[in-house]
Amino acid sequence: MKNVDYIIVGDGYAGLFFAHQLIQNNKSFIIFSEKKKSASQVSAGIINPVVLKKFTTFWLAQEQINTLKRTLLEIESYTGRNYLIDKPIHRVFHDENEQKLWVKKSDHLELQNFLNKEFQSLEGINNPFSTGIVNQSARLDVSNFFNDFFNYFEDKGNLINEKFDYDSLDVSGSEYKGIRFKNIVFCEGMGVMKNPYFSDIAVIPNKGHHIRVKLSEKISTADTIKKKHFLFPIDNGLYFYGGTYDREQLHHEIDDSAVDQLLRGLSEVYPYDFKIQEVNFGFRPTVKDRRPIIGSHSEYSNMYVFNGLGARGILNGCYFSGSLYQLIEKGIPLPDEVALKRFT
Question: What residues does 175 pair with on adjacent strands?
Answer without folding.
Answer: 170, 180
